Backbone:
């Protein structure tokens, strides 16, 4: 799985901790998510997409 | 209770205690610790001071446990917790079954019967709990 989470987070000038706090996970989960090493639940993917205001399929490429 | 879960950082799986994430969290910890720190310097009987300190500590511990129980868990760490507990369970099961077999064989060689009621109940109970869990999760 490939993600564009880091790209969108950089655009929003948001830290990993800020994103983690917004979506209710630990910073480590965001690190693994950005590296494509962790497949998020649909709920988490939706929460992250909501923070960036984009559709899930734009953020996560399977 | 007194403190709020949102004042603290999400707890790491296997981690102990709470780490403030907001100024309210730091104020809460500071204020809650004051009676414990200053009780030694206050005038009065040692016994009463000790009872008050222990009472306050009990309130603090109950409140922190309550805060921790209300904290949302990270979904990745929830999966890790499940895997760690499954692995621990398999290890314990292996040791218990091997131990029971060893003792049963040893007793059998002496033409005796060996049944450990506690361990047998633990194994049977585990199987029942597993079955009930599968049954209750079927439609979820």
Residues:
């Amino acid at each position: 799985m490939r993600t564009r989470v880091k790209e969108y987070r950089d655009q929003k000038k948001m830290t990993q901790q800020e994103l983690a706090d917004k979506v209710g996970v630990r910073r480590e989960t965001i690190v693994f998510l950005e590296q494509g090493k962790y497949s998020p639940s649909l709920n988490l993917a939706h929460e992250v997409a909501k923070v960036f205001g984009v559709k899930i399929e734009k953020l996560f490429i399977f | 209770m007194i403190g709020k879960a949102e004042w603290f950082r999400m707890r790491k799986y296997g981690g102990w205690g709470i780490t403030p994430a907001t100024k309210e969290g730091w104020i809460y910890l500071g204020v809650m610790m004051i009676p414990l720190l200053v009780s030694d310097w206050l005038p009065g009987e040692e016994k009463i001071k000790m009872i008050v300190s222990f009472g306050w500590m009990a309130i603090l511990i109950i409140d922190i446990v309550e805060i921790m129980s209300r904290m949302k868990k990270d979904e990745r760490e929830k999966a890790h917790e499940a895997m760690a507990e499954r692995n621990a369970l398999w290890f314990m099961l292996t040791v218990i079954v091997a131990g029971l077999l060893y003792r049963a064989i040893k007793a059998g060689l002496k033409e005796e019967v060996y049944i450990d009621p506690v361990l047998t109940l633990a194994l049977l109970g585990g199987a029942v709990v597993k079955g009930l869990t599968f049954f209750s999760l079927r439609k979820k």
Q: What stands out?
A: The longest strand of chain A covers residues 2-3. Residues 2-61 of chain A form a domain with the 434 Repressor (Amino-terminal Domain) fold (CATH 1.10.260.40). The beta strands of chain A are 2-3, 60-61. Chain A has one domain: 2-61.
